[in-house]
Design brief:
single chain, globular, two-stranded antiparallel ribbon, four-stranded mixed β-sheet, alpha+beta
């Protein structure tokens, strides 16, 4: 009934594996996290929660996330939207998570855009949740850049996005496996001073 979580008094940049704590108080500090864990069956589940500026900005847009580039195709068919007010209502939240996850149950990784707040990614493994969040961060950053040009831009068709998503998910090894491995290798090298610091979003680029 417990789950591992980052401590509330730590910044993302200072969280370490040995600093993770077991939460036995579901629904108190992290009501949305708890609702997700209850809604998705299975013994293995990871949730990533991000409030970076690009994702937070796009969460405030009425149109939501635009999948404009091929690299964003991994997110196709997996994005859900939750109003911030509903996230704070435990009864609405439970019903919403149960309904929405059924609608995208065929997708291994899921993205929840919390309106006017940020986003969560839900996946069977930490690596997939992490890589999905990196892809989302990149997609939101590109969307901001495109909108800032005030020029017309192209959006990939649903057929093209679906085909690209299927290819990325079926590659052997899958894209999230490769990128998670690369991210962990980079982290190990950088901790030993063997690499210069890189932006976190570069993992998906």
């Amino acid at each position: 009934k417990d789950y591992l979580t980052s401590p509330p008094d730590e910044l993302c940049s200072t969280v370490t594996p040995w600093g993770l704590t077991f939460s036995s108080w579901p629904g108190v500090a992290r009501p949305l996290d708890d609702a997700v864990y209850k809604a998705v069956p299975g013994s293995s589940l990871a949730v990533a929660h991000s409030l970076n500026s690009a994702i937070e900005a796009v969460s405030c847009l009425e149109e939501g996330v635009l999948l404009a580039s091929e690299r964003s195709a991994l997110l196709y068919g997996s994005i859900m939207y939750l109003d911030w007010e509903d996230a704070m209502d435990s009864s609405k939240l439970a019903a919403w998570t149960a309904t929405m996850f059924k609608e995208v149950e065929h997708q291994p990784a899921k993205v929840i855009i919390i309106r006017n707040h940020g986003a969560m990614t839900v996946a069977p493994t930490i690596g997939e949740a992490f890589v999905t969040m990196c892809r989302l961060s990149r997609a939101c950053a590109i969307q901001q850049q495109l909108l800032s040009t005030r020029e017309r831009f192209r959006i990939l068709s649903n057929d093209a996005l679906e085909a690209a998503a299927l290819r990325l998910r079926q590659e052997d090894p899958a894209v999230h496996v490769r990128e998670w491995k690369a991210a962990r290798r980079w982290l190990g090298l950088s901790e030993h001073g063997d690499l210069p610091a890189l932006p976190r979003t570069s993992f998906a680029g």
